[in-house]
Amino acid sequence: MYPSDLTDSQWAMIEPFFDVKKGKHLQKHNKRVLVNAVLYRVKTGCQWSMLPKDFPSHDTVWSFYRRACANGLWDKIMQAIESQV
Fold first, then answer.
1. What is the C-alpha separation between 7 and 36, in angstroms, rounded?
2. What pLDDT, in 10s, does the model give residues 39-54?
3. With contact defined as beta carbons under 8 Å apart, do 81 and 14 qualify?
């Protein structure tokens, strides 16, 4: 666990943004873990390839982040988290 990880209450706020019912059996990585990996990278400023090994591969995290930004999901996530602060 890292200081940048989502709290349970933060995760509860953004979990509905992920349609976990659709294709859940096809999902290889937990969405909370992917969000935590992006938040770790943002907080530390490390290169994608230097993410700790307990996160999914940097290619996977980068792909998740890129898609979340492209479809507006990342902005919604950040707004929800910021509204709690």
1. 10
2. 999 999 999 999 999 9
3. yes
